[in-house]
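FORM 12-B: Structure-to-Sequence Request
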């Protein structure tokens, strides 16, 4: 079968080439188009480009490897693409969208946490504190509010974090006080 004198296999390859180029552009400049998916959920660029890619690949493969009619191949390719697109959406895009954005932390989230001195804090200087978290260990420079030295291995309470420096004081875990 040919459309406007161009063999259908060539059209499938053109579609694959164009959709591949658009996917690469979307990878680099996708943040500019991120809002389109929010406004029109059905017009998610990832799903549209994936559908075109799946359609062109399956159409080309079926056209070159089978003796089915081109109209039947278009229908089969559309069904294959629809099924793969639904699977992509349900099993990849939805879980990614609902996953937590980051396992990182902010400076303000460190206030109130308990840490341990790994480098002693001198009276007028900086030491280092390590804080255990669910995503790993956080090591930050630290100083004290009251300008008192704190020895290595002491548990400390983070009172504030400013400009990458933790302001701490020794932590007393006694419940009797």
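FORM 12-B RESPONSE
SEQUENCE OUT:
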């Amino acid at each position: 079968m040919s459309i406007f004198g161009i063999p259908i296999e060539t059209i499938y390859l053109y579609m694959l080439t164009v959709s591949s180029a658009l996917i690469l552009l979307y990878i680099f400049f996708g943040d500019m188009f991120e809002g389109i998916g929010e406004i029109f959920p059905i017009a998610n660029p990832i799903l549209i480009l994936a559908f075109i890619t799946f359609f062109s690949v399956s159409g080309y493969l079926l056209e070159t490897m089978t003796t089915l009619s081109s109209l039947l191949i278009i229908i089969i390719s559309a069904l294959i693409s629809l099924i793969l697109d639904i699977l992509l959406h349900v099993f990849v895009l939805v879980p990614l969208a609902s996953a937590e954005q980051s396992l990182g932390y902010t400076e303000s989230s460190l206030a109130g946490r308990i840490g341990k001195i790994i480098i002693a804090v001198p009276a007028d200087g900086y030491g280092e504190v390590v804080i255990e978290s669910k995503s790993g260990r956080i090591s930050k420079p630290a100083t004290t509010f009251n300008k008192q030295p704190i020895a290595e291995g002491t548990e400390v309470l983070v009172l504030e974090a400013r400009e990458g420096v933790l302001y701490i004081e020794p932590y007393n875990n006694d419940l009797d006080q």
